[in-house]
Amino acid sequence: MEWVAIITAVAVLQCALFSFVVGRARVKYQIRAPAIQGHELFERCQRAHGNTVEQLALFLPGLWLFGWYLEPRAAAALGLLFVVGRQLYFNAYLEQPRQRGRGFLLGFLATLTLLLGGLGGALAQLIYR
What we know:
Number of domains: 1
Low-confidence stretches: none
Structural class: mainly alpha
Number of helices: 4
Order of helices and strands: HHHH
Protein name: MAPEG family protein
CATH class: Mainly Alpha
Distance between the termini: 22 Å
InterPro entries: MAPEG (IPR050997), MAPEG-like_dom_sf (IPR023352), Membr-assoc_MAPEG (IPR001129)
Membrane topology: Multi-pass membrane protein
GO molecular function, one term: glutathione peroxidase activity
Oligomer: single chain
Subcellular location: Membrane
Radius of gyration: 17 Å
């Protein structure tokens, strides 16, 4: 489960990095807290970070369930796809928001696979125990 723990830390650190990008944009575009609107580029940062926070709430349980009930290394590999997808999504959202779909899809499919696999593994434990 060490690889699952490492991917967890990487994903959370990535989200923290995204929050620093939001903070830097807040200063650059002079958006004073608690405002979340005011400049398009700031709003893009804010939305991309917010979406990442939302996706983490789905991803992290799926990662651990899959790792626990099925295969930790496969969970970590899927987790790495999530992290790469999130980075692609974030970068695309800042540059050209219409191009963010590929990164989103990569991360979401990894998350969906983790959640469904973890659920299946847990159900199999109940049924075949």
